[in-house]
Amino acid sequence: MSLTSPNPAAPNPAAHDADQPRERWFVHRLKVYAADVHGRFRRLKWLALIVLLGIYYITPWIRWDRGPGIPDQAVLVDMVGRRAYFFWIEIWPQEVYYLTGLLIIGTFGIFFATTLLGRIWCGYACPQTVWTDLFMWVERKLEGPRTERIRLDKAPLSARKLGLKASKHAIWLAISLVTGGAWIFYFNDAPTLLREIATGEVSWKVLAFTGLFTATTYFFAGWAREQICIYVCPWRSFQAAMVDEDTYVVTYQDWRGEGRAPLRKSQSWEERTADGLGDCIDCKLCVHVCPTGTDIRKGQQISCIGCGLCVDACNDVMAQVGRPGDLILFDTRSNQVAKADGLAAPVRLLRPRTVIYALIILVVTGVMAISLAMRPTLDVSVLRDRAPLYVQLSSGAVQNAYTIKILNKTHEARTYRLSVEGLANADLSVASAEAQSGPSLTLTAEADSVATYRVFVRVPQGDAKPGSTDVAVLARDLTSGEIGRHASVFMAP
């Protein structure tokens, strides 16, 4: 068998591909040099930053008296004591469903805000936005305005450049360290932990988690920045699906701004209008001030976080050239369509989705509030021994053994009367003190704790029903009269 030689005149695909530029599947990040801007939305962002960071850093130091032996930190997640404290509310591990309720309220709260005002959470309240704003402020103060920062990055390494970069990163690390440390204070008593840090007695676990939170803050706010908002954060996709034609979002009025062209000194606005040009003078300042580098003139994009800084920048330019402001503004799509036709669209805040989101928030909040107001201070759990299922004593009586836990949620020791409902002539005794026996038992539980008892229940032979009998174990608080109940069974031959 012979091989056919290829035609030498035929084009070589490999050579042809080598001559063509390869398609790039990945693009290097284009660093965003956000310019400084002044205006009402910038002031609003500073206000949000100060308030939110103030709450974050101050909250662990707020005290709340709960009585002796109970942590007095207003907001504390006590992992050792297995409690979560939020001012007057104390959450036990078995009440984790309250956390579920908070997550539902928070989620639908963001849904509701997004349906009304677009990505306002991303632009003003998201931790990534807040700390990135603070990091960028430090960067501007040390390295100068946008153009100077660009020149500095392009310049060769020098003592000045090295000093500025080192100072910036040192301050970023300090902010990140304070941030990570503040988060650890939510899981430990703040004054005690601060004293341990000062004396070097802090545990390695605290140091490890502080280092972890410091590193993530430094990386996310200092290096990743807008890439977290554009590529990593899942909210960008969720929120984009919740915006409709009546949602207020950052909008470029293309019907007024197009066609865009630089403004010549000798050109009047009447001449621009006659030439078919609009109010946009293509200064690109709206792009330069955007923390994600978004050009809002291209329409709604997933990278826009709805902060409104481009509105401030454009309004400043419009004032300088003598044109009306709000070429870029917060507006709805339906209103923009109406404005282009010279009409006015009504504001529709009450829409099916806003009503549904609001109702869900109100219902879940109401259920949680009622549950917190009416939740018992006593809980009883019962675990019956299964090996053996029962014991028949020499007297003929049938005995079952139970492990009973009495949960005392009050901040004082309580005494309880334990009894069994559903058994005739039942006799109860405690394994550790069988001298105490009878139709009921008197048991105690320390403040804010779980008392565990092993209890034997005996029934005379003639009163024991064959097989399984449904019973209820009752614990009555002798101080308040509150009753805890738990269903179980009694087994007999």
From TrEMBL:
Pfam families per record: Fer4_18 (PF13746), Fer4_5 (PF12801), FixG_C (PF11614)
UniProt keyword terms in alphabetical order: 4Fe-4S, Electron transport, Iron, Iron-sulfur, Membrane, Metal-binding, Transmembrane, Transmembrane helix, Transport
Keyword Iron: yes
Stored InterPro entries: 4Fe4S_Fe-S-bd (IPR017896), 4Fe4S_Fe_S_CS (IPR017900), Cyt_c_oxidase_cbb3_FixG (IPR014116), Electron_Trans/Redox (IPR051684), FixG_C (IPR032879), Ig-like_fold (IPR013783)
TM spans (from-to): 46-64, 96-117, 170-187, 202-221, 355-374
Residues in 4Fe-4S ferredoxin-type domain copies: 270-300
Record's keyword annotation contains Metal-binding: yes
Protein name: Cytochrome c oxidase accessory protein CcoG
